Amino acid sequence: MHAFDYARPGSLAEALALASNGRRALFLAGGTDVIVQLREGRRSCDLLIDLKHVPELTSITVGPSGALEIGAAVALAEIYEHPVVRRDFPALVDAASIIGGIAIQSRATLGGNLCNASPAADSSPALMALGATLRIAGPAGERTLPVADFFVGPGQNALQPGEILVSVRIPPLPPRSAAFYHRFIPRNEMDIAVASSGVCFALDDAGRIADARVALGAVAPTPILVPAARDALLGREPGAEAFAAAGEAARAAARPIDDMRGSVAQRRHLAGVLTVRALENALRRIRGAQ
């Protein structure tokens, strides 16, 4: 590990000023990724900026409409233990509660998991299915970006020099809707997804699917939305036939690689299977709330 300076800003303005001073800077939210990468020499910096003391990045708020806003430096355990998250956004609990082990979750953050931009990250497909957007601040001001547009390659995100991911915003789910996140791993815990699927859909008054989103992880260079799976669901009654069509669309959209954790054929197969199972579980959540 190379020597670097450490800074602990107390405001977003101070953090942005530090990030724009011309030095090679990295951000520390939870540190479970960046500290390991620095230690192993995979990344280097002149300045490490600790974001854990910036109020905008360390709070969870619920708006009047029911929208949820989570600071990028909020620990995963704080997210999945939050009563509103558990009640209204259980798909986020599905994802946040399986990233690493309990000790990791008390430190690791949602924003850090996103910024690390792993194709196999658990938070990404769940947030994409939920229609989440990101609040980003930088030298040119603030901008909003859908989570689906945040990933540009393996380990690469859309942040520009000097920009900071401030928060994640999840809109309220409409009535008669639910989401679910499901993954496959070789072991029982603390493993990386071989493939994963996040889904969300809403029913109209006639009980047909009025809107839907399907997102996949670990089967392409980045997490991906599958518009063809959405098209396969729209206007249909939720059930085996519609879900199988969406699963086939997900399988066809997968662009995986072979590696030590899974083959191309296995990952394509899993993309379909996991999508069907996630849709089935989302439907159970809708029916359980009725």
Automatic annotation (TrEMBL):
Q: Could you list this entry's UniProt keywords, alphabetically sorted.
A: FAD, Flavoprotein, Oxidoreductase
What's the superkingdom here? Bacteria
Q: Does the keyword Oxidoreductase apply?
A: yes
Q: Which InterPro entries match?
A: CO_DH_flav_C, CO_DH_flav_C_dom_sf, Diverse_Substr_Oxidored, FAD-bd_PCMH, FAD-bd_PCMH-like_sf, FAD-bd_PCMH_sub1, FAD-bd_PCMH_sub2, Mopterin_DH_FAD-bd
> Which stretches make up the FAD-binding PCMH-type domain?
1-175
Question: By what name is this protein known?
Answer: Xanthine dehydrogenase family protein subunit M
- Lineage of the organism: Bacteria, Bacillati, Chloroflexota, Tepidiformia, Tepidiformales
